[in-house]
Every structure is written in C-alpha cells, then in structure tokens.
Predict the 3D structure of the following.
Amino acid sequence: MSVFAYIGIFEGLSKLLIAFAISISPIDHLVSYSALMCSIAIVVRFVYGRYCSGHFEECKFKIVFDNEQLKEMFAFAGWNFIGAIASVLRDQGGNVILNLFCGPVVNAAKGISSQVNNAVVGFVTNFTMALNPQITQSYSSGNREYMQVLMYQGAKLAYFVLFLLSLPIIINTPFILKIWLGDYPDYTVSFVRLTLILSMWESIASPMSTGLLATGRIKWYQIWVGGLNLLNIPLSYILLRFGFSPNIVLIVAIILSQFALFLRLYFIRLLLNFNIVIFITHTYIRILLVSIVSSAISTLVHQHMSSTFMGFIFTTLVCIFTTLITILILGCNKSERGIVYSSLLKLKHKLL
C-alpha cells in the first residue's frame, strides 16, 4: 500500500504543477490541460505496470490470443458497460434536464454540490479500493462466508465513514457556503445536502456490486439495475413538467437508489445464495438507527447555536462525537464493539 500512496502523492503533485503550467502555456489552455492530464495518466499506468511486473511473477506481458477468454472478457465488459453508462446518464442527464427547465444558475448550484461531494467521497474511495480485491479473492477461493462478512460489514463501514464526514457539512451547509463562496445560487444548500445523502446510500452498494461482479454473471443484474437508474431521467422530466422544485431530480435519484439497493440484494440471494435478512437486520437497520439518532441530536443542537465560527466549530464537534457514540452503541454488534474496545486499550498503552 506504500507504493500506492507514493504514486498517489506523485499524481496529486503533478496535477498541482499542471495548474501552474497551463497559466504560462503559449497554446490554448484547455488543450494544454487535456494533454498534460493524459500524459500523467499514461505515466501512472506504466509505473503501476512496471512495479507489478517487477514484484509479482504472474504479472508478465505476453501476447496471447485465447478466443474463449476473449469472448468472456468482451461479454463481461459489454454488460458492465451498461451499468456504467446508466450511472453516467443518470447524473449527466439530470444536469441536462435541470438546464432545460431551470437554466444555468440552477445548474451552477448543482456543479457546486458536485464539488463538495467529490471532496468528501474522495476520503472513502481508498477504503473501498482496499476492500474490493479481498471480496473478489474470497469468491475465487470459495470462501463465501468470509465474502459475505466483507460485503455486509464493508457496506456498513463505508456508510459510517461517509456519514461521519457528511453530517457536519449537511448541518452547517449555509455557513460553509457563505465562508467559501460568499454569495451562492439558489438551491445550492439543498443540492449539497441531497447529493451527500445520495452518495451515502450509494456507498452501501459498492461492496455489494463488487461481489456480484466477481461472479461474472452480470447480464441481468446490469440490465435491471442500469434500467432502474435510467428511470431518473424520464421521472425527473415529468415531475419538473408538473412544476416540482429542482430538488426533485436528486430526490428521485435517492428513491431509485433505495430500490436499486434491494434489487442488488435480490441478485445477491440469487447468484451467491447469501442470507439477505442478515444484511437488513445487521447492516441496513443499524445504518438507519445511527442516521436518525445522530441527525436528530445534531440538528437540535444546531438550532440553539448562533451562526458564528465558534457555533460552527461547536456544532461540528457535537456531530462528530454524537455520530461516533451512536455508531459504537447502535451501529456495532457485540463482537465489533469488542474489537473497538481492544483497539482503544492498545492505543492507550502505546500512549502511556
């Protein structure tokens, strides 16, 4: 993982240098930006390839034409493309519809919400990247019991990490936007909040999707889930046509994400024969309890605080503390709490 961190640092610094380079570039800035970003992607790709070929015997480049394997790979890539393009069309199609009905100002608000969301979600990405190979490896080795634990606990942990980061932003959205932008477009506050809520629910789906992709039997899974995601475009169009608020685009996406979640559970039961009742009782209900209790307490405290910097700091600390306590009490089972207590004791001994 240290190599992954070093490459990530290199990539981040390179992008920072690009920001300075395009300002002095003699050619079109957009062309310069795209060319330099493409160059970084190519360099990173070759660095990963060189590292893997030097450290893993099985990673060797060799030209082989295996028709059966190529057929399987193209079939998998084709069906997976349906899910990927459906997700892109859901997001970008929503932007097009907002622009069609509400104009560029509302679209600008949506863009701001996406920036906030990307900054928060980036913290959880590394966790899911580390978890996904373990899920796939568990399936390939036939260890279905461990795979189920990874998928269900991974979904819960991914949500809790994102919720811990998102709740202070959701509670303090107007203050944060005022400090960051000064004046901001209408609907920016609600867009930021709804986008973060959507990302939290989507984070649950990531380990589940990885487990389903590991089976290789993804045709009907991608058709059904991809088709469900695409419903966001016509439903949003119809509801905006009837005069609903622009918020309806994200509200529809959140509702559809819940249906997609249970659709994934159906395919998990069908393809992996997992007990989905365990997910509902040990993961989904615990997530709901933590979300409701933490949000209620944090909102109550926020309503009695002034809109000052000290009020923002205090509310943020309350959000974090409340979320951590409710995760420990309501979100974790007995064995998970035991692991947390054991880790805290080890940390205490190290510090003392």
Q: What stands out?
A: The two ends are 29 Å apart (CA to CA). DSSP finds 13 helices and no strands in the chain. Residues 70-351 form one domain.
